[in-house]
From TrEMBL:
Organism lineage string: Bacteria, Pseudomonadati, Pseudomonadota, Gammaproteobacteria, Candidatus Competibacteraceae
InterPro entries documented for this protein: Cys/Met-Metab_PyrdxlP-dep_enz, Cys_met_metab_PP, O-succ-hSer_sulfhydrylase, PyrdxlP-dep_Trfase, PyrdxlP-dep_Trfase_major, PyrdxlP-dep_Trfase_small
Enzyme Commission (EC) number: 2.5.1.-
Annotated SUPFAM superfamilies: PLP-dependent transferases
UniProt key word Amino-acid biosynthesis: yes
Pathway: Amino-acid biosynthesis; L-methionine biosynthesis via de novo pathway; L-homocysteine from O-succinyl-L-homoserine: step 1/1
Protein name (database record): O-succinylhomoserine sulfhydrylase
Domain of life according to the entry: Bacteria
Cofactor(s) required for function per UniProt: pyridoxal 5'-phosphate
PROSITE patterns registered for this protein in UniProt: CYS_MET_METAB_PP
Gene3D superfamilies documented for this protein: Aspartate Aminotransferase, domain 1, Type I PLP-dependent aspartate aminotransferase-like (Major domain)
Biological processes, Gene Ontology terms: 'de novo' L-methionine biosynthetic process; homocysteine biosynthetic process; transsulfuration
Keywords: Amino-acid biosynthesis, Methionine biosynthesis, Pyridoxal phosphate, Transferase
Gene Ontology CC entries for this record: cytoplasm
Amino acid sequence: MFDEFDLGIDSLAVRAGQTRSAEGEHAEALYLTSSFVFENAAEAAARFAGGREGNIYSRFTNPTVRMFEQRLAALEGAESCVATASGMAAILTTFMGLLKAGDHVICSRGVFGNTTSLLNNFMAKFGVETSYVALTDLTAWQAAIRPNTRLLYLETPSNPLMETADIRQLADLAHAHGAWLVVDNCFCTPVLQRPLALGADVVVHSATKYIDGQGRCLGGAVLGATALIDKDIFTFVRNAGPSMSPFNAWVFLKGLETLRLRMQAHCASAHALAQWLERHPAVARVHYPGLPSHPQHALAARQQSAFGGVVSFEVRGARAEAWGVIDAVRMLSITGNLGDTKTTITHPATTTHGKLSAEQRAAAGISEALIRVSVGLEDLVDIQADLARGLDRLA
Ligand SMILES: *Cc1c(COP(=O)(O)O)cnc(C)c1O
């Protein structure tokens, strides 16, 4: 066997975490079993008394899920990982595992809408209070700190404007006040950005997006130091049951093997598309961290190894013009999902961000003219031609 510590990132993506059964299977085995049997009563007693070692019941231990956890941990540079049923299950698990009544959370205003709902409608019921700040405004994060602040939460880059926060600065701020920094690394994946190396305490993922990468399965993960993950996070999943299915773990294991190649292709096409959009006369503004016109271009260049697969842009006009461009597409998928081989196109103001008030949307910078594209793996010329159908008519 090889020593995983000697392997490069591509080798880890293909090899890390794999265990073979006595059958000697080459590909990772899919263990579709809800429980595991013991040699005798004493072995059963020993397993139940133990921690994460040894299989008991697939709500909390399953070999296929374990292989996925160890492979993703190797890529994120994390000591430990717990897989969950979805990205939202990972976020709920993090909050339930780490917080208690009376605690205060500071959250970036631009996070995934369900995360905000979870904090406002559910964590609030259990006495956890949340303040919201602008992702890129360090002074606002500082000013929001209270004696009972336990957790700072953000996504970088943000959805849909691709704003970027300095993870190291915010980790230092959190630690100076005895709080944890939690980063949702869904948009970058460990291929583009490793928040734990920049000082974050916990990384959460929606594996549903780029880790699957082909739009098939829901899943998530929570990663960090063993002391945190194997205690509060694992124990919550074990008791509450927001667990990843072995089948989905098997799909995600295969997704991780090609993640780097796919991310490079997504990023290359997104970058070229952003440059092309910036030159188009019907486009008023493009939001992509790879463009020098992006306000955090320098930070993104420092913090990420590439700029991501999502591009947002404003057409000249308002809702009618944006909808016109969306309705003119023939190949692109009109859907809210992202991180797929298939390019997707969304109107954030009336879909993903439709529940916000007009004032909240204005504060978040999401106009009626904004369109978000998650760039897939089709030929770039075909993606451009599909967008040009509506854009050329506007110009
Ligand atoms: C999709 C998404 C989630 C939620 O993940 P699910 O797997 O859909 O539950 C969380 N954060 C971000 C940034 C996402 O894009």
